[in-house]
Amino acid sequence: MKSALIIVFFALGIASCSKFAKVQKSNDYDYKLRMAEKYYVAKKYNYAKQLYEELFPLLKGQPQFEDLFYKFAYCAYYLRDWMNAENLFKQFVEVFPNSPRAEEMEYMRAYTYYKQSPKTPLDQTNTQKTIGLMQTFINTHAGSTRIKEATEIIDKCRMKLEAKEHLSAELYYNMGKYRAAAIAYTSLMNDFPDSQKSDEYKFRIIKSYFEFASNSYEEKKPARFEQVITECNDFVDRFPESKLLKEVERYSTISRNNIKEISKVTK
């Protein structure tokens, strides 16, 4: 039964390709456009795209050109050809700046970058471009119904950038590069000052500086434990309600005791 179904689908595929080949060979451009529309509605975007591409230079400047351009861009999008789709959405706005569809095309251009945003550990260039283009969209289309979605996408992208920076800082800590970890966590806090994890990041700064001090030469330990105490005091001022407060106070106490012990030895 399964083999029979495979044969049927294979035969239908051949017939479909044969029919499309005949459409392509036709010199009747109105017919080609009608067939492109049919393929588009049927979600056969690969066929529609090829026909639109052939008709693109021929219908330029004609009344049908705007609609053709619009659907041609979406064919690339639905075929997951993100780079081409982004370029076509951008070009549409340049060619038809006053079109009722221009706002949608601007949004979709930004959205194609969002679709290309990779997993957290990878390069986040497209994520950053998404934020920039979505913010530009918000700034230039204040009354758009897409503002809410654009804002949500920006928030998601920022969360991803924050997570990536967090991974980098964590990697430094796990590798034993404690000073680099402290600097990375400080940068993370500065880049995302409104993060819900700010107290956690500050705590990681304290731990990183503590480990850095603990693994230093004796003569450098007092100044480096002082750095830990300074960070602890700053934590208390900034996050007086944090659940990590007791742990922070413990690190501060240990650091003070270490300074006292070192002072006794050096006297």
Automatic annotation (TrEMBL):
Keywords: Cell outer membrane, Membrane, Signal. It comes from the Bacteria. The keyword Electron transport does not apply. InterPro entries: BamD, BamD-like, TPR-like_helical_dom_sf. Pfam families: YfiO. Residues 1-21 form the signal peptide. The keyword Metal-binding does not apply. Residues 36-215 form the Outer membrane lipoprotein BamD-like domain. This is Outer membrane protein assembly factor BamD. It comes from Paraflavitalea soli.
